[in-house]
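During the second year of the project, the team shifted from modelling isolated chains to modelling whole assemblies. The rationale, set out in the original proposal, was that interfaces cannot be judged from single-chain predictions alone. As a representative example for this report, we include one of the complexes processed in the last quarter. Its constituent sequences, exactly as entered into the pipeline, are reproduced here:
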Amino acid sequence: MKKLLISCLVIALTSSLMSAADIKLLNVSYDPTRELYKEINTAFAKSWKAKTGNNVTINQSHDGSGKQARSVIFGLQADVVTLGLAYDIDVIAQKSGLLPSNWQTLLPNNSAPYTSTIVFLVRKGNPKKIKDWNDLIRPGVSIITPNPKTSGGARWNYLGAWGYAMRQNANNESAATNFMKQLFKNVTVLDTGARGATTTFIQRGIGDVLIAWENEAWLSINEPGGKDKFEIVVPSLSILAEPPVALVEKVSQKHGTAAVAKAYLDYLYTPEAQEIAAKNYYRPRLKAVADKYAKQFPAVPMMTIADFGGWQQAQKKHFDDQGIFDRIYQPGK
Amino acid sequence: MTSRRRQHTETPSGKLIRWLLITVALVFLALFLVTPLVAVFVQALDMGWSGYWEAIRDPETLAAIRLTLIAAAFAVPLNTVFGIAAAWSITKFDFRGKNLLITILDLPFAVSPVISGLIFVLIFGAQGWFGPWLSDHDIQIIFAVPGIILATIFVTVPFVARELIPHMQAQGREEEEAALVLGATGLQTFFRVTLPNIKWSLLAGVILCTARAMGEFGAVSVVSGHIRGETNTIPLQVEILYQGFNYVAAFAVASLLTFLGLASLIIKKVVEWKTTET
Amino acid sequence: MKARRNVLPGFGISTGITLAYISLLILIPLSAVFLSTASGGWDHFISTVTSPQVVASYKLTIGASIAGAAINSLFGLLVAWVLARYDFFGKRLVDAIVDLPFALPTAVAGLSLAAIYADNGWFGRYLVPLGIKVAFTPTGILLALTFVGFPFVVRNVQPVLEDLDAEIEEAARSLGATRWQTFSRVIMPTVLPALVTGSALALARALGEYGSVVFISANIPFKTQITSLLIITKLEEYDYTGATAIAAAMLLMSFVLLLAINLLQARSRRYQETS
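Output from the structure prediction step:
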């Protein structure tokens, strides 16, 4: 009996020592951020070790933002979520209560440490002469964009197009709906996430234009041979995409990782992390870094989600069941 | 067997037809089956052997290999024991509803892998039947290793049984009945009479079960959560590499499964030749 | 067939294990699909499985699977014929290769096919300029479904061809039948049950196929979205009752098809035993 107690004690001690020294976090993220977080995680681990002497490993999971949100609701043990749009995190809060409904106010800048926007990626030489959104609805143009029902990027893409159509048509909704219908008629492939769409365009050589996150477009250009094959076209009007981050309080508390997880999210706002973001073509929030990298981020007139009445309204109107997206995909095919 | 069919005199038109058919068949097979196989290896070696090994040695890939092996280590023995029991029950006895049983047995074979994964999410997911209970007791099944193991077991249930049943049916029951008459017990009959007769089919079934367990994609994809380094099996890792623009690495990892597939093919062939020889 | 008395021991334990395992691992989990669907109500079930997008996916899946099974019948018969009746250099190798789609994981098959038929792929680069697009079209799906079902036909037909009694053929020949008559009137009827069984198995396999199609399909609703992919999409969109409704419909189809196949096999086996 004494032996048993002692061995239990030893195990408890060593495991508690280990958990103090070796922490694991799960960051459930949206699709394009694979390279970004690989770099950030390495840098954070280094900084954490220097600060506390402990090791932290951050595991990543990547997929379409909406899909990831659903996974978290269904039990994927995320300590932090870094998704493509605020609505997806709202849904997690609503449907599972794993984080408070005011999560977005808990971190600076609407909990979005970096922003991005939507651009077009076309083949080198722009053979189809695609300059702006209205070129996308020309017959014979093949568009690649992900599925708005699963991908965060796809919803930003859609809203960018919708916003443009509304402006062009003096806010006439039925004209805008028509525009979207024609646009999606030209869509050849609907992937689950932004990265899937990029793969389709780049690797499989399908499509004339990829509607993409700005950072995805740059990533593609910087791939070996990319500069000779693709070029970026910035539309006349785009949308400010704010991919937010949040601490999944209940899960991290259960894991005992709340402190590290919070530090991790705070780290995203530090100059070091902001530089990493900028290098990966995410628009940084920190003015100093933004100025330093200003050249690689063209000034584009941008709408914000507020112009669409906020995410709750936009999701309901466009992307939920029987919303506008469902209707433009209906019969008549 | 072959000599029975050999024509002793072959007409010129017969020869022409023969060569035509053989050529068409071979060309078809080359284009249709062989090319995809070759493509895997060619693409995998696009960056040479060093690129190949680098891809295999990547920590995420190694973790995927480890998880795949674990899943197979659970699925194969369980399904082998089950397969033997089912084959024994089905081939040595007559009872009503046997055809129904065989059909149910075949279901995982025909059911879409997506459904195979879905059912476990429905049962063990946080919003599923056992969800609240599991979460209260802090047990993770879906989006964790146990879920992957379960899904793998499900999709490979019929494999061993399906290999054994035709063979045991062809052999009949006489030998076992004779053993019984001579005074052997059930277990003795099984180990000394049945098992030696079926050992090659059993091996083939186990090999196929293993290959399928390690190569399963759809069902595991649904329950996995895609946590890099933790809940990705080899097929899932292939998809991740492909999406990360690491095409050569994707094919390199895919080639591992291809080797396994080829090995299982060869072993199955050897088994078939051995059983026709006896 | 006279009923045989069950004399061998072990019925209880073997059947017991079998039934328990099947219940726990197959029946109960699968019932989750039906229960989940039922909880959504009958009306919701009907409206989901008859919605245009779902029906389009059935048409595509069933159509491509049947087409694939038909192609497999033709080429499967050809390959089985060549393997069963002729000898040639490398025959054993060819015989082994036939099983490749069984052994190759679906994801690898899909990845490889997509790479080959893409615009810059080995075959794609010649086919696409000719206007033959395979990747991301229903043709690509057809290709993948044909690929995974191929061995079924060959493996079912080959033994029958091998067991064919040469004497019957020679008798027909000596009675003046032409080659074609011998084939169509003597050989084909014997082979037909096996051919049908093999094609049906290929069909069943193709209906549920997912891994290979994922890589080669564009997943465009109404055009290249097979039912498995549609289920996944519904899953990803939070629509669980929708997903299970479609899954339940598919399960029923598979089950009926499998039952028919097994009955057919049982009947042809009895036929062979009594002849």
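The first helix of chain B runs from residue 2 to 5. Chain B has a mean pLDDT of 83.
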